Each structure stands twice: as structure tokens, then as C-alpha cells.
From TrEMBL:
This is Metallophosphoesterase. The lineage of its organism: Bacteria, Pseudomonadati, Bacteroidota, Flavobacteriia, Flavobacteriales. InterPro entries: Calcineurin-like_PHP, Metallo-depent_PP-like, STPP_CPPED1. It comes from the Bacteria. Residues 34-220 form the Calcineurin-like phosphoesterase domain.
């Protein structure tokens, strides 16, 4: 691609692309193959160059013309200074869907309703059909039962009932999008209850109706299969959080001042995102790989625990399903 003029020099550290970003080029297939542009955890309010990262993604999507794009939460707070960022997203000539993340509400006193209005979301959880597939978007930010502290990460009874009914009323293979993961205790607190709902509904061939569940939130590159359903975490477009104990200043003083928590991250040099291909003839879900490097110092270089297990990568994956 000719769009490698990515991000301007930022003073202390440059995130110009000195190495090519590894995004495979996949030819469009004939038939009702479905392509989806996916990005997670851009964090416009934390990372200093989110505009450039999202612009890079959107320019690629304009070239490749997927059937729709979706962001998996922790996108941008609904404040006036972020309107140009949202405008970039809204340039896409096709359906562009949102998933609510925990940082998209409550941070800086904003509410879920304010964010939904700004994003023009009609409902905080919803579903839609495309080609021969059904897609479900969940809101993992319901209030946790007391006692609880920190960000809410729960799916309440009303949403659970809706999810059960929605799955029961479709005959199509289904993909679930949610911000927080459903496969571990650091994600949705009642994750086992939600997995039970997802596992219950079957296709006519007896196979699980849900063929995959995609999430963000954890800024990791990961897949775990539980009872035949792959739970796939899509890495952040922007960084890995390491906290104030391991903070390092990497950028010019004016950047560090304007984005005071960026020093608590290990930023990725280039934006991470993926394109998912759903091929009903081959019964295959394919996730394109994308890899970059850290803006030094990396988690290993700052001595972050388990830093060697972190990676600025979205792994190429291929998942077969029977529909």
C-alpha cells in the first residue's frame, strides 16, 4: 500500500514506519463471502496519535471496501474536542457499528447515554443480519451486584433475556461482539452464565449456533475454545497498559502534558487492526494477521512482569465451523 506515510515525528520518539506494517493482502472472493473491518481499544483520550491511527485504518477500509466495520469499545469520550476523531469513523461508506466499552462511559463524568447519543447508537445491545450470518452486539457494562468496586462488567437479567430470545429466533450461524471477554474472570463477571446461553442454541445440524465471540478490552492477542465456541480477543489498536509504576516518558513534553496517562502505556509503533473473512462455502472464519513493534522501551525493557508474554500483534487465525 502507498499509505505508509503514517504518523509525523513527535519529538522524543518517532513512530514513522521504518519497517513495513505486515497486513496481508487478500483478494476478494466471489459469492456471498463477507468481509468485516475490526478495530478495538483505540483510546482516543489516552493515546496521543489516535487520529492518525484511525485515519490509517479508514484509508485501508476505503480501499478494500469491507461489508461493514465495527469498533469493539474504548473508542472515544463524547466531548467536543473528539468530534474530528468521530468524523473520521463516520467517513466509511457503509454500515459502521459500535460496541460500548467501559472507558466510553463514566470516565470524566460522562454517561452511557451521552456516548450512545454521540455515536448515534439506537440501542446499547442489538443484532443484525448480513448475507447468511447473524451478528449480536452486547453491552458488558451493566451494574454488578453489590458489593462491587471499579468499572462495572456484567450482563444483567434484562439483557440476558433479550440475548436468549434473539438467539432462539435466528436460524443463521451467529457471531457475538462484546467489549469485555466472556472466557475469563477478568472479563464479564457472570461470564459462565452468558456462555451457557450461547451454548444452548443449536443449528439444524446440531452444531452450536454461535460460531465465534470477539472481544477487546484486555489489549491481548488470544483465543480459547470453550465447548466448541472460539473466544477471540482482538488486540488494541494503540498500546498495552502497564500502569504508573512502570511509566516512562517517550514523547515531547507538550505531548506528555496533553496526554498525561500515555506514559503509563507501552504504545505500539503502528496501528493494529484486522479484516475478518467469513466464507460460508468453505465454512471458514479467517482473521488477518497484523504485527508491529513497541515504541521503546518495551514491557520487557521496563521489567514489566510477564512482559515477555505481551505482543504488539494480532495473530492470523482460521476457524472452521459447520453451518
Amino acid at each position: 500500500m502507498d499509505r505508509r506515510k503514517f504518523i509525523k515525528n513527535t519529538g522524543k520518539a518517532s513512530i514513522m514506519m521504518t519497517l513495513p506494517l505486515q497486513i496481508p493482502t487478500v483478494d476478494f472472493l466471489e459469492g456471498n463471502v463477507l468481509k468485516i473491518g475490526v478495530v478495538a481499544d483505540v483510546h482516543q483520550d489516552i493515546i496521543h496519535d489516535a487520529y492518525a491511527r484511525l485515519r490509517f485504518f479508514m484509508d485501508d477500509m476505503k480501499e478494500r471496501k469491507p461489508d461493514f466495520i465495527i469498533q469493539l469499545g474504548d473508542f472515544a469520550l463524547p466531548r467536543k474536542q473528539n468530534q474530528p476523531f468521530l468524523d473520521i469513523w463516520n467517513e466509511f461508506d457503509g454500515p459502521a457499528y459500535h460496541v460500548l466499552g467501559n472507558h466510553d462511559m463514566r470516565d470524566l463524568g460522562f454517561t452511557r447515554e451521552q456516548t450512545m447519543k454521540w455515536w448515534q447508537m439506537q440501542s446499547r445491545y442489538y443484532s443484525f443480519d448480513k448475507e447468511g450470518f447473524h451478528f449480536i452486539v452486547l453491552d458488558g457494562n451493566d451494574k454488578n451486584p453489590a458489593p462491587w468496586s471499579g468499572y462495572d462488567r456484567y450482563i444483567g437479567n434484562e439483557q440476558k433475556k433479550w440475548l436468549s430470545n434473539d438467539l432462539a429466533n435466528t436460524y443463521k450461524p451467529t457471531i457475538v461482539f462484546i467489549h469485555q471477554s466472556l472466557e475469563n474472570e477478568e472479563g464479564i463477571a457472570n461470564n459462565a452464565d452468558i456462555r451457557t446461553i450461547l451454548e444452548k442454541e443449536k443449528l439444524q445440524n446440531g452444531k452450536t449456533k454461535v460460531i465465534a465471540c470477539l472481544s477487546g478490552h484486555h489489549h491481548t492477542d488470544y483465543m480459547k475454545v470453550i465447548n466448541d465456541i472460539p473466544y477471540i480477543q482482538i488486540n488494541s489498536m494503540s498500546y498495552r497498559w502497564v500502569g504508573s509504576k512502570y511509566s516512562r516518558e517517550r514523547f515531547a513534553p507538550h505531548i506528555e502534558s496533553a496526554y498525561p496517562t500515555v506514559s503509563s502505556t507501552c504504545p505500539y509503533r503502528d496501528p493494529l487492526y484486522t479484516v475478518i473473512t467469513l466464507d460460508p462455502e468453505k465454512n471458514n472464519l479467517h482473521i488477518e494477521g497484523c504485527t508491529t513493534a513497541y515504541i521503546s522501551p518495551s514491557p520487557v525493557e521496563i521489567g514489566y512482569p510477564s512482559g515477555d508474554k505481551m505482543s504488539p500483534t494480532i495473530t492470523e487465525r482460521s476457524v472452521n465451523f459447520e453451518a
